[in-house]
Amino acid sequence: MKQIPIAGKQQGSALIEAMAAIIIFSLGILGMIWLQAAATNQVSDAKYRLEASFAANQVLGQMWVNRNELNNYVAKDVAVPALPSGKRTVAVNGSQVTITISWQAPGDKKVHRYETVALING
Predict the structure, then answer these.
(1) Which of 80, 86, 77 has the alpha carbon at shortest distance from 104?
(2) Could you tell me if residue 45 is inside a domain?
(3) Tens of pLDDT along the chain (122 residues)?
(4) Residue 75 CB burial class (10 angstroms; 0-12, 13-18, ≥19)
(5) How far apart are CA 26 and CA 24, in angstroms?
(6) Is residue 2, in this structure, part of any structural domain at all?
(7) What domain range includes position 113?
(8) Calpha distance 28→105 (Å, rounded)
(9) Termini Cα distance of the chain
């Protein structure tokens, strides 16, 4: 009886398995890179929101100290150096104060806003 070599019929299957493994590995690496980029973006956004709330609270603190002169703080589009393209608007309506901080992150087309409203009794 003549034996037929089995390896001859399976030539190329190792190459297909290796290609499938490389594709699966590459997709996993791309997914991890995407997650890292998304996490970095979220951290930057949180930092900018923190800076905006800090800038608004600084103005509110000053207004509490000089609560009889609230109208002196009314402003529109004042630069906020801690934020990229940051602008601050302060509106006073009686004892109600509205502070709006806007900014645009580098490479982002969306303009972000932080707004706080406070009642300052004189």
Answers:
(1) 86
(2) yes
(3) 666 555 556 667 788 899 999 999 999 999 999 999 999 989 989 999 999 999 999 999 999 998 888 889 999 999 999 999 999 999 999 889 999 999 998 888 899 999 999 998 86
(4) middle
(5) 5
(6) no
(7) 7-119
(8) 29
(9) 109
User: Residue 83: inside a domain, yes or no?
Assistant: yes
CB 62 within 8 A of CB 78: no
- Give how many domains the chain has, as a whole number: 1
Beta strand spans in the chain (E): 75-80, 86-93, 96-103, 112-119
Token reading at 94: 């009686």
Decide: 53 and 114 in contact? Cβ < 8 Å: yes
pLDDT at position 5, please?
Answer: 59
Compute the distance between CA of residue 111 and CA of residue 52 in angstroms, rounded to an integer. 13
